[in-house]
Automatic annotation (TrEMBL):
InterPro entries: Amidase_dom
A Pfam entry, by short name: Amidase
Keyword field contains Lipoprotein: no
UniProt KW keywords: Membrane, Transmembrane, Transmembrane helix
Superkingdom in the source lineage: Eukaryota
Protein name per its UniProtKB record: Amidase domain-containing protein
Entry's transmembrane regions: 12-33
Domain named Amidase: residues: 65-460
Region of interest (Disordered), residue spans: 176-198
Originating species: Carya illinoinensis (Pecan)
Length: 519
């Protein structure tokens, strides 16, 4: 459309004709602007709130959003390998969400309604997709039901876009395999550096960081949400163990396993947490832990002034010692920002049993190996169909199919776990040791100093939070002297999610560090 000729003279037109042309030109301009807004709308870095606003204003549909992400996956994923497989029903789910919104169905009021989400491939989906933990040993297995958190996401109207890649068996097959690698998915890559994405929820972090999905779900036993989020400049939320269901998740340890969101913003992570937290009859731990969930949910704690009055602890040794001077300077600026926003910083604190924490990995490994064998055998036995029915079967599968599993990476953790025989004296001593570390270390530090959170750069605090089942949120903090992204972790005692949200959101809004990678 357009005017192909200019009139010979404005004076040759009647007043009516002139007004008609002006009106027509105005209409064409307005329609053109609307077309540009619709067709030129950028979904990169879009937030959950912006998605819902776009739906409300009829700027786009769930189908169009899903189509965008599918195209980005086709374009980017061959390089980054953050997505293991896409859901063949994603577009039909999008159409269903669009219909529900057009009919004003009650479900469409959920903040995640019509929002595409990636699920880490250790979480069961009772659909056309596989659930394999990245391993060929579970390819073709049939799960009895959706994982508990997947059920909650579906009930909220979220679109399950696909399965995110991960470190195979959540990094519990071998210590020698590269972080972010799996037999099925290959080697995941950091979109900022092309290098280590960190694991095991590597694909969840890669995909969100590179804008291949709106939000994602990861799992953590020790560092597997916090570390990938740190490396990929995204927000990772490790909830209190048991706050979110682990039912239907390929396990390592019911004592330490946690399911949480990986997103680009704190608010998006909180919207996801509000949906997935809560009681699941298939995970008894959620019944007790549900007492921590505040009336009215978690979104109410997204306060820009959330830092005001918060008591934040700084333990420099060991968490600040391994950073370069440039990185340390950035962290110091952030600490000043926290102070300016009203937080009270208690600097140079010490964890009472720091030396013991330095060797706590031995006790953790002792407990995890036994817990893994018990829990993974229970998971495998419950499958409707599977190539393997036990950890011993998985070991045999790997030996029989070395090319498929790249057995040169080894399976020594599998073999060590298979050699355990339940929770015996050594495991009980390890569990008792870690419980004492929690009580006399982190818990004592927090209570004695009346802290709302411990603040640490990168994900180096993950083991302390892991062995105690404590929550932590990591927020983008910048780029180190080597050009690698990093974040700040805010960790607290069990059930302290409301305070952590206020602190993390207040820091994020004061700094707004998050930037997309240049792909």
């Amino acid at each position: 459309m357009g005017i192909t000729e200019s009139p010979p003279s404005y004076l040759s037109f009647s007043l009516f004709s002139t007004l008609f042309l002006i009106l027509a030109a105005t209409l064409v301009f307005r329609v053109g602007v609307q077309i540009l807004k619709f067709h030129g709308f950028s979904f990169r870095e879009i937030t959950v709130q912006q998605i819902q606003l776009g739906f409300k204003r009829n700027q786009f549909t769930s189908r169009r959003l899903v189509e965008f992400y599918l195209k980005e996956i086709d374009r980017i994923n061959p390089m980054l390998k953050g997505v293991l497989e896409v859901n063949p029903d994603a577009l039909s789910q999008a159409d269903k969400a669009d219909h529900e919104r057009s009919t004003k169905a009650a479900i469409s009021l959920s903040p995640l309604h019509g929002v595409p989400i990636l699920i880490k491939d250790n979480m069961a989906t009772k659909d056309k997709m596989n659930t394999t933990a990245g391993s060929y040993a579970l390819l073709g297995s049939v799960v009895p039901r959706d994982a508990g958190v997947v059920t909650k996401l579906r009930e909220a109207g979220a679109i399950i876009l696909g399965k995110a890649s991960l470190s195979e068996w959540s990094n519990f097959r071998s210590d020698n395999a590269p972080s972010g690698w799996s037999g099925r998915g290959g080697q995941g890559k950091n979109p900022y550096t092309g290098g280590d994405p960190c694991g095991s929820s590597s694909g969840s972090a890669i995909s969100v960081a590179a804008n291949m999905v709106a939000v994602s779900i990861g799992t953590e036993t020790d560092g597997s949400i916090l570390c990938p989020s740190n490396h990929n400049l995204v927000v990772g939320f490790k909830p209190t163990v048991g706050l979110t269901s682990r039912a239907g998740v390929i396990p390592i340890s019911p004592r330490q396993d946690s399911v949480g969101p990986i997103c680009r913003t704190v608010s998006d992570a909180v919207f996801v947490l509000d949906v997935i937290a809560g009681i699941d009859s298939n995970d008894k731990a959620t019944i007790e832990t549900s007492r921590y969930i505040p009336k009215g949910g978690y979104a109410q704690f997204l306060k820009t002034d959330g830092l005001r009055g918060k008591r934040l602890g700084i333990v420099r040794n060991p968490f600040f010692l391994r950073m370069g001077n440039d990185t340390l300077a950035i962290v110091e600026r952030h600490l000043n920002t926290l102070r300016k926003r009203g937080a009270v910083l208690l600097d140079n604190l010490e964890i009472p049993n720091l030396a013991d924490h330095g060797i706590s990995w031995r006790a953790e490994d002792t407990a995890l190996l036994a817990e893994f064998k018990i829990s993974v055998n229970e998971y495998l036995k419950e499958l409707v169909a599977s190539p393997v029915r036990s950890l011993a079967d998985a070991i045999a599968f790997n030996k029989k199919n070395p090319k498929l599993e790249k057995l040169e990476y080894g399976q020594e953790l599998f073999i060590k776990a298979e050699a355990t025989n339940g929770i015996g004296k050594a495991e009980e001593e390890a569990l008792s040791y870690m419980e004492r570390l929690n009580r006399e270390g982190f818990v004592k530090l927090m209570i004695k100093n009346k802290l709302d959170a411990l603040v640490t750069p990168t994900s180096s605090v993950s083991r302390i939070l892991a062995i105690g089942g404590f929550p932590g949120v990591i927020v983008p903090a910048g780029f180190g002297s080597d050009g690698h992204p990093f974040g700040l972790v805010f960790g607290g005692l069990k059930g302290s999610e409301p305070k952590l949200i206020e602190i993390a959101y207040g820091f994020e809004q004061a700094t707004k560090i998050r930037k997309p990678p240049k792909l």
